[in-house]
Specification:
The protein has about 350 residues and is mainly alpha-helical. The chain contains 14 helices and 4 strands. Strands 1-2 form a two-stranded antiparallel ribbon. A two-stranded antiparallel sheet has the order 3-4. It is globular and about 65 Å long. The two termini are about 20 Å apart.
Length: about 350
């Protein structure tokens, strides 16, 4: 079973069209006809499939052996200052970004989604965000990092603070406890915030960090940390795919919101996000490290931004090329280790193709 993109840019699951019959009157939002506690019959099969992928991908951070990372981190000659800076920056960003995404799901997105199969996946995603948050606690504790330094970077580091503040501004509507989706304008605001959350936060801001840390893994450096990021990236790829289907389905069910003015606003938001990510990248990699510099990462950010725009049916802006073709192999986590015996065993999932991961 696999998840593929169909011709209009949505993800359809094996099995074809949504179930016909009693589930036809279900809607993603503003559905007062069905009980959100009754998941059957399922209309949006893609939401159910993403849930099943998440269950198959289950993991916890302390399964990953980080003893070699500890030795490398303590060895002053094992990592350059640039590599250490890059690691700290990404731990600082991700440690608070994962909490921000979890809060968005639990406090805002979930209560506006009236469809039960989508709610089921959101609960799974919230659990995975908790695992990711725990991962950065585990990494900081294991490496003996100063938690005040790492966890306050979203306040003290201007490049990280700007990214977080931007996402908060983009998602302020749904965080209002009085916000509803009872009018076309408010539905448009809801989709605007979903794009800020899924497309920009999880789909753009996360991916530069993934490329940086996985570049170290590719060089056999900080391999435990790299494996943690592989697991997180696998989860985030599914989150992104779900979010895009969620956005596209809401637009399909409420076509009046998809005005030229609104589409231009979304493109503008993505362009601003790219600029913020470029600033972050230059600050994170001022001198560059082996095989990686801010220019290459910036090109990668533009490349994935184009991909995100196309997936929500907007025109690409940058026409950028992927400078990291090796990501297609290093991200593709088809196997997992038995961490007690250090054997490699076949991983039971692998349901997303590379095109859908990026």
């Amino acid at each position: 079973m696999s998840i593929k993109e169909n011709g209009n840019g949505n993800h359809g699951t094996v099995g074809g069209n949504p179930a016909k019959g009693a589930g036809d009157h279900k809607r993603i939002i503003n559905c007062s006809v069905t009980d959100p506690n009754k998941i059957l019959p399922i209309k949006y099969k893609w939401a159910r499939e993403y849930y099943k992928v998440g269950v198959a991908n289950n993991w916890v951070p302390d399964e990953v052996n980080m003893q070699k990372d500890v030795e490398m981190w303590r060895d002053a000659s094992a990592l350059s200052e640039g590599e250490r800076r890059m690691i700290i920056y990404n731990l600082g960003f991700f440690s608070t970004a994962e909490s921000l995404t979890a809060n968005n799901i639990v406090l805002s997105i979930y209560r506006h989604i009236t469809n039960p199969e989508c709610r089921q996946y959101l609960l799974r995603q919230a659990f995975e965000e908790a695992i990711h948050t725990d991962t950065f606690i585990y990494c900081c504790d294991t490496l003996g990092l100063d938690p005040d330094e790492v966890y306050n970077m979203y306040i003290n580091n201007p490049a990280i603070k700007e990214k977080d503040d931007f996402v908060v501004r983009l998602t302020k509507s749904v965080l209002d406890p009085g916000f509803t989706t009872d009018t076309e304008d408010r539905i448009r605001s809801f989709v605007h915030d979903l794009v800020g959350f899924y497309v920009i936060m999880e789909g753009i801001f996360f991916y530069a960090g993934f490329a940086m840390i996985l570049s170290l893994l590719r060089q056999n450096k900080m391999t435990g940390l790299g494996e943690q990021f592989q697991f997180i990236l696998r989860d985030e790829s599914v989150h992104l795919a779900f979010g895009i289907d969620l956005i596209n389905t809401i637009v399909d069910e409420n076509p009046g919101i998809w005005t030229d003015e609104f589409k231009a606003l979304l493109v503008d938001n993505v362009e601003k996000a790219v600029e913020l990510e470029m600033t972050y990248t230059r600050d994170c990699l001022p001198e560059g490290i082996l095989g990686l510099n801010s220019g290459l990462v910036g090109e990668y950010v533009r490349y994935i931004a184009d991909r995100r725009l196309e997936r929500i049916r907007l025109e690409k802006v940058y026409d950028a090329k992927n400078p990291f073709p090796w990501m297609s192999e290093i991200i593709d986590l088809r196997k997992e280790k038995n961490f007690f015996e250090t054997r490699v065993t076949e991983y039971r999932s692998g349901m997303l193709s590379w095109d859908e991961r990026t």
